[in-house]
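Note to self: keep these together.
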Amino acid sequence: MKKLLSVLLALAALSAALCVTAAAAETAPAAEEPEKLPPFVQVWGKVSPWEGEGIYLKNDDKDSHLNEVVIHPGDAPAVDGATGLPLDLEKVKEGDTLYVWTGPAMALSLPPQMSALVIVGNVPAGAAAPEFCEIARRAVSPAPGDKGNPTFALTGGETLEVTDKTVYTPWLTRQMVRMEDLNPGDRALVWKDKNGAAEKVQLLPSVYQGYVSTFATMHDVRIAVNGGFDAERDQGVPQFSGQRTDKGVMAPIRGVAEAAGYEVRWDKALGVVVSRDGETVFSVQPGAETVQTPEGEGYLSAPCLKEGGTTYLPLEDLCHWLNLYCSWG
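Structure:
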């Protein structure tokens, strides 16, 4: 019955969308840009009885379409909101409140089902839960003589303010963490003070193989792998020249991939073949609009380009297939 209901909901949503699209086409002179999905979604609620797999959460926010949701923890870190130590989900009981961050995708079902990126529980009464974030660019400090604190740009457009009193901690390791150690693509939980600045930043396990930074010049776009463009800090960081096109920035496959730890070779039948630890990641032919992966075909935002003996892919596409975070300068 539940599966049938999901199908009916999907058909109803599609029908409504088609009706709205048709009406808009008749009344609007030009189509509007589609609304971008947020990079992450926060859900929260009390653990409630559930016969299926996952954790069923319900909250009192009747205006939210996610006031009832099933969370699948998977390998997501589960964090004690009071101590920052691991939270034993086996000991979470009915009535406990959990705060969860997920990606925007969800299974079309009632209630909606989502995969967790991080789970927080045992938040003390009257205290705010820590916030989940992803670093988009390195910290920027005020100019000498200016007031203020360093800030990180975050994925999604927000910023994170840190102070000289901010404490940085790792997840399940003893390594030392400093502000300078947070790089694009790093994910963290942040406990904030009453002014909104970070009191504690807990660095979470990385989900990327690395990151690229970009810097636009008059002639091209510079691309750095696992570093930036600071003359002192980034000495020896591999840098490459990207080509500007009407489809965006094209990046050299071999240079970026090898700098990120992948192997690259040319195959007469397959074209450029990128692998890691002997396992093929993808292959692509010059002029092709798709890449070939072990799971099947993957589409590109612009065709593979070969020029002067160098083969290029759109930078964001290349980062996707190499699992690199792309930090635009």
